[in-house]
Amino acid sequence: MKLRVVIVEDEMKSREGLKNLIDEFCPNAEVVGMAANVESGVEAITGLQPDLVLLDIEMQSSTGFDLLEKIPEINFEVIFTTAYEQYAIKAIKFSALDYLLKPIDLKELIQGIDRVQHVRNSGISREQVKSLLENLKTEPGKTHKITLSTSDGMVFLPVTDILRCEAQGAYTQFNLVNGKKILVSKNLKEYEILLQEHDFLRVHNSHLINLSQVSKYVKADGGYAVMYDGTNIPISNTRKDEFLELMRR
Q1: For the chain, how far is it from start to end, CA to CA, in angstroms?
Q2: Of 150, 203, 241, 247, which alpha carbon lies 20 to 30 A from 106's?
């Protein structure tokens, strides 16, 4: 069965261009509606009940996130579109959601639609969107949740539950404060970028640690951090000064 797609995009040329790409190159999808703003987008989504919404982040007077806030129940997949690499992209990655940079790359569009075809009706996207919208709110002291894509599905995890992350080749192993381990098929660099604003520091080529989970620093053997679970994590010479300065703060 073809995916029913709604496009929400404030520029007519972009709307039509995206529709033409889907019509010509995505035989597993059908554009059933298009909208130019939040209000008409909400109307199209609630009326047409699509499987997938291609949603522009920046619209003239509002954002795609505003639209999602107005939908009572998220029962569709979302792929964001944007012309800018900006803070919102980090939030989207934090929730493991898809996005396409404009001008739209055909290969990435096809891959995104194929992915939706495989996960449709799983209910996972609802939790991802919920996590995204919660993370975008700016209440003081609010704990962010990160979405980890594993071989079994998705894990929605408060960042405060992460003790440390360890490189395992092209994979990353998350070590949690409760002793559990989660293996994710993305490299450590990606999580270094996502978590650096949440008191995480890459202290070694193979180790990204939660600074709030450091029990003490030991100068012996070149210097290492002792985590609250008793694990010793080496501190590279190039990161030692930064680590000590952050811990003093």
Answers
A1: 56
A2: 150
